[in-house]
UniProtKB/TrEMBL annotation:
GO terms for molecular function: nucleotide binding. This is Gfo/Idh/MocA family oxidoreductase. Belongs to the Gfo/Idh/MocA family. It comes from Paenibacillus silvestris. Residues 136-348 form the Gfo/Idh/MocA-like oxidoreductase C-terminal domain.
Length: 350
């Protein structure tokens, strides 16, 4: 392990506040520089973590600060432009999910990373949960056998992010619940399965619950999906079902992934706000009887958090754990869901 310490910038201090918190507690960070167009937010975060270098101008920060790395926690429409600009300036990038509004933008980001030899990591932080790390170990040990069906979802009862500029629609966001929440659970499902190649998808999107609330908030052209669903077939024959909702008439907010394999199965089920209702288990046949085996998510994983993993990859000159190729794959898959919803037919991946 190198003793090198990094100078890190954080751009966007609403979502980016958690990035600042992790960097401030990291032994591998020498200095943090902040950037946000909101001067009050800049002062608040700067004062909280005793950070003196603060900018409202991204271009000026890149020019004046000799940064090693940057976290981008900005609206989706800025991901491509700011990522490429940073990599052109010689700075490694951790970009919040989704990678971009669409696959065309994601491809340009990947190309820039390769052209300028800079690391580009996508913030797929679900992978770093202890229970996800432990389940991944079980899968990699072959205990579940051949995985043939996965159902993964993030469904909210009511949780549209009204603080976001939703009235601008896909032009700013790229999409709704699928690209905001679905991106997380789709990545973790694909990661569990070793990122298989998708063959086709049948999907649909809905905006059934949130239009009235949007109108009450003065958003009369609300067009983003508050729920999206999809069924993917992989080239290896496996099926993957995806559900994501900002608002749906259900009992609670849940994040769930169910895995069915030839030797065993598993479930990661988290009820937001009710830890007692959560369940993380593996199901294995032992002596002819299927046993329920809890995954103890209280065990401290050796895996660092997503921000530290990014820093470690830079310091050790290793591949980032959440690669731009994977980020692009997820973006392509969501593009195809939207296309299938628009056409009303299954869509094949080329």
């Amino acid at each position: 392990m190198s003793n090198r310490k990094l100078r890190v910038g954080v751009v966007g201090l609403t979502v980016g506040a958690s990035h600042v918190k992790d960097y401030a507690s990291s032994d591998t960070v020498k200095e943090i520089v902040l950037c946000d167009v909101n001067e009050l937010r800049l002062k608040e975060i700067g004062d909280k973590y005793n950070i003196s270098k603060k900018y409202t101008d991204f271009d000026k920060m890149l020019k004046e600060e000799n940064l090693d790395a940057i976290s981008l926690a900005v609206p989706n429409f800025l991901h491509m432009r700011l990522s490429i600009q940073a990599m052109e300036a010689g700075v490694h990038v951790l970009c919040e999910k989704p990678m971009a509004r669409n696959a065309a933008e994601g491809r340009k980001m990947l190309d820039a990373s390769q052209k300028h030899n800079k690391k580009l990591m996508i913030n797929f932080n679900q992978r770093f949960l202890h229970e996800c790390q432990m389940l991944k170990s079980v899968i990699d040990e072959g205990k579940l056998g051949d995985i043939y069906y996965v159902r993964t979802l993030w469904q909210r009862r009511r949780g549209v992010p009204w603080w976001y500029p939703l009235s601008s629609g896909k032009e700013v966001c790229g999409g709704g619940a699928l690209i905001d929440l679905g991106v997380h659970v789709l990545d973790r499902a694909m990661w569990f399965c070793g990122y298989p190649e998708p063959e086709w998808v049948l999907g649909n999107t809905f905006c059934k619950v949130s239009k009235d609330e949007a109108a009450r908030k003065g958003i009369h052209n609300f067009e983003l999906e508050d729920m999206g669903v999809a069924m993917f077939r992989m080239t290896n024959g496996a099926m993957l079902e995806l559900e994501a909702s900002w608002a749906s008439n259900r009992e609670n907010e849940a994040i769930t992934t169910r895995i069915y394999g030839s030797k065993g199965g598993a479930v990661l089920h988290s009820v937001v706000g009710d830890r007692n209702a959560s369940s993380n288990q593996v199901f294995l046949e032992i002596s002819g009887v299927v046993q329920d085996i809890p995954l103890d998510d209280k065990v401290i994983s050796k895996m660092p958090n997503v921000r530290q993993a990014f820093l470690d990859a830079i310091i050790n000159d290793e591949e980032v754990p959440c690669t731009p190729q994977q980020g692009l794959k997820i973006t392509q898959m969501l593009d195809m869901v939207y296309l299938s919803a628009e056409n009303g037919t299954p869509v094949k991946f080329e």
